[in-house]
Structures are given as C-alpha cells and as structure tokens.
Amino acid sequence: MGLFLSRNLASNFLYPFLFSKKISVDLFPKQLENMMCLVSPRTGRHLQRYDNGCRQVVGCIPYRYKSNETHDHEIEVLVISAQKGQGMQFPKGGWEIDESMEQAALRETIEEAGVVGNVESKLGKWFYKSKSQAIMHEGYMFPLLVNEQLDNWPEMNFRKRRWMTVAEAKEICPHSWMNEALDVLVSRQTQPQPKL
C-alpha cells in the first residue's frame, strides 16, 4: 500500500510539478527535496516500454561546469554506483508508457543520482545486450545540466555518487554505449557557439 501511495504521489503530484515549465524549481526547494526522499522509486516492469522485443531504457549524463580561473567551460559529470555488480555508470532505467522519454530520463536521474536540472536534446540511441536477460535494450541518453543536488533522494541508501572529469568517467564506466554518449556530449560542448 505504501508503494502504491508513494507511486501515486509521484505520478500525480510530484512529477507534474517537476516537469511544469510554469513553476520554478526554487519555489519550495527544501519541501520538494524532503518529498523526493519519501517517494519510493518505481519498481516492476508492468509499465515498461518494448519495441520489437527490445526493452527501452533512458538516462542522463548529469553535468556541470567546473569552477576554475580560466573560464574554459570544462565540464564535470556525475556518475553513480551500479546497483548490481561493480563499477560506476550514468543514471538510467526503463522508459514507461505513462511518461515521455524526457520525463523518464529526469525521473531516473532524480531517483538514482539525486540531482535536478534541465534535460537537453537527445545524445543518440544505442543497442546493447542485457547482462541479466537474453534480450536487447534500446538505450537513449540525454545531457542534464544540473542546477540542484539533493541531500536526500529515493535511492540514496543504495547508490554512491561522484563528480569527476570526463576522462575519469570514461575510465571508470564499463559500458561502451554510455562512453559513446559522453563523447557526443563533449563534442557538443567543444563546438563553437552561434553568434546572436
């Protein structure tokens, strides 16, 4: 019953609040953070999207601009510990039928990494084999420019998070498709910005 209530709270109140463009995220930051800690992460696969037998997975590469005197816009990325097994990765999870791709990516990032920000345009689509099942996954990754790091989040007791350089993230992340998505993000960051 508690999971049902917390899931309904998330889908009927909290997620629409986060995805609304009319409400500032800074409106009730502490109250919002405390509510996020109470919300149980989504579990089960009954709402999971599949396409031609491939489970559809979405995630984000949370990033921020490094503080330094050179102002060269170098980025840091946030990685999280894998729930099963070793290693660090970017937050990702199942895309469900009651949400858009961007909503699912943000939800997974809040649940697993405890950060909120702006989901930017898709980095691409990758296919990879599931480690636990004999199925393929169709993975989509988005950059997320972090504007708030929560002290409390739904999976805080199961995951560690760590900011690191792009080079460190590529070294520590075992998933080639995530590293390819990171390469796309870096190439976007290094492209000259159009003059207005």
UniProtKB/TrEMBL annotation:
Its cofactor is Mn(2+); Mg(2+). The keyword Hydrolase applies. InterPro entries: DDP-like_NUDIX, NUDIX_hydrolase-like_dom_sf, NUDIX_hydrolase_CS, NUDIX_hydrolase_dom. It holds the Pfam family NUDIX. Signal peptide: none annotated. Keywords: Hydrolase, Magnesium, Manganese, Metal-binding. Gene3D superfamilies: Nucleoside Triphosphate Pyrophosphohydrolase (3.90.79.10). This is Nudix hydrolase domain-containing protein. It comes from Lupinus angustifolius.
